[in-house]
TrEMBL record:
Pfam families: Trypsin (PF00089). SUPFAM superfamilies: Trypsin-like serine proteases (SSF50494). InterPro entries: Peptidase_S1, Peptidase_S1_PA, Peptidase_S1_PA_chymotrypsin, Peptidase_S1A, Trypsin_dom, TRYPSIN_HIS, TRYPSIN_SER. Belongs to the peptidase S1 family. Coiled coil: none annotated. Residues 1-17 form the signal peptide. Keywords: Disulfide bond, Hydrolase, Protease, Serine protease, Signal. This is Putative serine protease. GO terms for biological process: proteolysis. It comes from Pimpla hypochondriaca (Parasitoid wasp).
Amino acid sequence: MLIQVFIIAQCLSLIAGANDRPRSRIREGQLAKDDEFTGTVSLAYPNNFIHTCGGGIIGPHHVLTAAHCVHGKPLGQVVRAGIHDIRDTDNVIEVAVKKVIIHPQYLAQADYRASDSDIALLVLESDLTFSNRVNAYSLPTEKPVPGSYFVAGWGRNARNPTTYQFQLKWVAMILDDPDKCYGSAPEAICSYSSVGSTCSGDSGSPLIRGGNIYGIDSAGVCEPGKPTRFTNVYHFLDWIQTNMQRYN
């Protein structure tokens, strides 16, 4: 029991740290509080506001997501920030996506789980206003190391697989051998949880630790205990920073 309490305390501490700087489901996840995961956003279309993917804020007008979330998709998506319930119309901040930059080495596969360089940078029409509900994650300054990481999303729920869930949920994940996923290091981060998973609708959601964004959900298998593949943000730092400066 003491060990279990200690582990829970450590997880909560890391989540808090993630907010100090303020295509898959989170299956069996925990409900996020309003001041948690303030850099995690929903991508949607303004005509219906149906959630399509997640994303991670990395600057006032820059968001990271998975390339397969935007490749071949109609233009006109909006970023929805500042909310944990996607039905919330009072607190939501909606900003149109002005430009989509897909990594040049991304090659869409029939099975998207086999796609490499699954990362895209979204340039927003106007700046996001940061607050206690909206903030940016920091880009990592070092390679991901073994330990607990966290991902949150609005993806499909195991009990109702035909619709996305309304409320943001999170799950703690442990780094695993990248070769167990559909890609190898250094491009991929392989992570798993014994109590939860990501699946359809959580793609693009950021994997965070201590306020830093280390991964972008690329391919989950919707089953606790099975590995989820995340695109390794650190591996693509030069590309990210170059394009952030170019489209500042």
